[in-house]
Specification:
Elements: H1 2-20, E1 34-38, E2 52-61, E3 64-72, E4 78-85, E5 91-93, E6 102-110, E7 113-120, E8 125-133, E9 139-146, E10 152-160
Antiparallel strand pairs: 1-2, 1-10, 2-3, 3-4, 5-6, 6-7, 7-8, 8-9, 9-10
Length: 161
């Protein structure tokens, strides 16, 4: 009987530990890496909000970062975009799975903060963006400021999966 009680207590403690477990960032030098799911109710958009937005950010070697952005847009259409970059300030295509009409340059400010900029083919900056990860590594906020014309700011909040 005592053994059964100890086993039950051990299982209960294990369940609490699992429920309280946080997911560690996979790269201590860049906390934005990992799989992130947008929290729609904590986000705000200038345009209609996507229904689902997931970012998988991974270092793929040679200093390259790969992003696979999937989800469902506001109209129910599937989102599927891929892009790669380095934190060197150079411009990279905004998409690698279809012809890109713009480029993006990237800067790692510190392990929890990335800044990036969208550029038109005419070499005009069209958007300023940043991603910041909370001190516990479990939430990431992406701020997008549209430039030119009617200025607007998006705020997307993600949770680490």
């Amino acid at each position: 009987m005592r053994g059964l009680m100890l086993a039950a207590m051990s299982l209960a403690c294990g369940a609490f530990a699992i429920a309280d477990e946080t997911i560690a960032p996979p790269n201590p030098n860049d906390w934005t890496q990992g799989v992130w799911e947008m929290i729609r109710e904590e986000s705000a958009f200038c345009k209609p909000a996507p229904r689902v937005s997931i970012r998988e950010i991974t270092e793929v070697g040679w200093g390259m970062i790969s992003v696979h952005w999937t989800g469902i847009d506001a109209n129910g259409n599937r989102l599927d975009s891929r892009y790669v970059y380095r934190y060197d300030g150079d411009k990279y295509p905004a998409s690698i799975n279809r012809p890109a009409s713009e480029s993006i340059s990237w800067k790692l400010v510190n392990p929890r903060h990335v800044e990036f900029f969208h550029w038109s083919k005419e070499d005009k900056m069209t958007e300023e963006l940043s991603r910041k990860v909370t001190a516990d590594g479990q939430k990431m906020t992406q701020i997008r400021r549209y430039l030119g014309g009617a200025e607007c700011v998006d705020r997307q909040v993600f949770r680490r999966r």
